[in-house]
């Protein structure tokens, strides 16, 4: 199956899942995750109409962003765990950083001269190594983001725990999203759902879908 065919198939499935939930596909942003794939694949996606792509490793993302700098309306999303000392470098090419999970990272991204859109990543497990802020610390982090200069809080990002019911996990994200909107009314976005569970995420209100292999195909070995 070609890249065009895979993208079309996912787009059709997204539209069908949205319709089942009484939603419009226009509410949803499909973000192909292109890690380990060459910049040429991103350029091909761009030619197919894609304007949002995601990477989770800074060095790889930066190299692709440089190579594809002529695609001026391509929006890079950074979705990997981010070290504070790399924050400003990532901010230089990524329009959206979806994996913000601590106050010190918000401070590193803050600026009086530039605007960065962020999602707060929520950890739905008991394992801190999974990345994300614990739900009981989310309100405090939300308030910190709202006070930071040059930070636009878009909403929440989460990954369904391995082996868990994704629908239940995403229902929890929806609840947390509703909670933070009490203090951050503009933070209406939910980034949830990947290749194996994006339909469940749509049913629970996801607005941004991070989809890898279902669109890009199997990743090249060695990455």
Report what the structure shows.
- The protein has 223 residues and is α/β, with parallel strands linked by helices.
- The protein has one domain: Alpha-Beta Barrel (TIM Barrel), CATH 3.20.20.
- It has 9 helices and 8 strands.
- The strands form 2 sheets. The protein has a 6-stranded parallel beta sheet with strand order 2-3-4-5-6-7. Strands 1-8 form a two-stranded parallel ribbon.
- Strand 4, helix 5 and strand 5 form a beta-alpha-beta unit.
- The mean pLDDT is 96.
CATH topology: TIM Barrel
What's the structural domain tally? 1
CATH class: Alpha Beta
Reported CATH architecture: Alpha-Beta Barrel
What composes the largest sheet? Answer: 6 strands, parallel
Order of helices and strands: HEHEHEHEHEHEHEHEH
Secondary structural class: alpha/beta
CATH superfamily: Alanine racemase
Tell me the helix content: 25-40%
What is the beta-strand fraction? 15-25%
Shape: globular
Strand order of the largest sheet: 2-3-4-5-6-7
* pLDDT averaged over residues: 96
Low-confidence stretches: none
What is Rg? 17 Å
Distance between the termini: 22 Å
Summarize the structure.
By secondary structure, the chain is of the alpha/beta class.
Write the layout of secondary structure elements.
Blueprint (H helix, E strand, L loop, with lengths): L2 H18 L8 E4 L6 H9 L4 E4 L2 H10 L7 E4 L8 H5 L4 E5 L2 H7 L6 E7 L15 H10 L3 E8 L7 H15 L8 E3 L6 H6 L4 E4 L1 H4 L7
Parallel strand pairs: 1-8, 2-3, 3-4, 4-5, 5-6, 6-7
